[in-house]
Amino acid sequence: MSATDGTPLTGATVLLTGASGGLGSALAAALDQRGAIVTAVGRDANRLNLLPARGGRLVADLCDSDACEEAVELASEATGSLDVLINAVGVVAFGPATDLSAVVLRELLEINVLVPMLLARAALPQMSRGGTLANISGVIAEPGRAMAHMAAYAASKAAVRGFDEALAREARRLGVRVLDVRPPHTETGLATRALAGQAPALPRGLDPADVAETICEAIESGARELPSEAFGS
Questions:
Q1: pTM
Q2: How far, in Å, CA of 233 to CA of 213, rounded?
Q3: H helical segments located in the chain
Q4: If we measure between CA atoms, which residue out of 135, 154, 144 comes closest to residue 200?
Q5: What is the pLDDT of residues 196-219, one digit of tens each?
């Protein structure tokens, strides 16, 4: 399989992080329906145990680089390699940038920016040629889409998009495709679990199941970018 091909999900070994979240759980279901061998990683053991995960489950804090290594090892245990990594880890904070505490800013950047970097560092050496690494930056990372009272969150997601753009060039030598995923607002419940502040008035978001289907289709089709308009909003 060449790097320009899609990655078939039937029988693929998939590491799904953030699996206990709203989008993560929808992705776990969509991947399982396609016959993928999913290793699900999250912080909520109860929600994780409800997910289809033929590759196993791991409760972990991925801000710890050792946990990232453990997750990759678990996912690649059966075949010795990893076909797909989907990173759906993320947190949000609301409020003027001048009002957010240093503690909140550090946690936001650590989870939204550092975790994708740590996962990529751990996963890429184990990924098979023709594999796909997908990070979710979101519509807010697109030019002109950042909102007031979401400056720190927008910055974290713009950092992910920049990381993906550069990583795609590096991973190409390994035959791995990096997919930057930018869905519009989705009804995952993330806004109700903010690190700080209260969400501004938002229109009704997309169904996580529909977003998960679009992401799976992009992985299989060979898409190299998944902008907000690809979700049909």
A1: 0.95
A2: 14
A3: 22-33, 45-49, 65-75, 102-109, 115-123, 151-171, 208-221
A4: 154
A5: 999 988 889 999 999 999 999 999
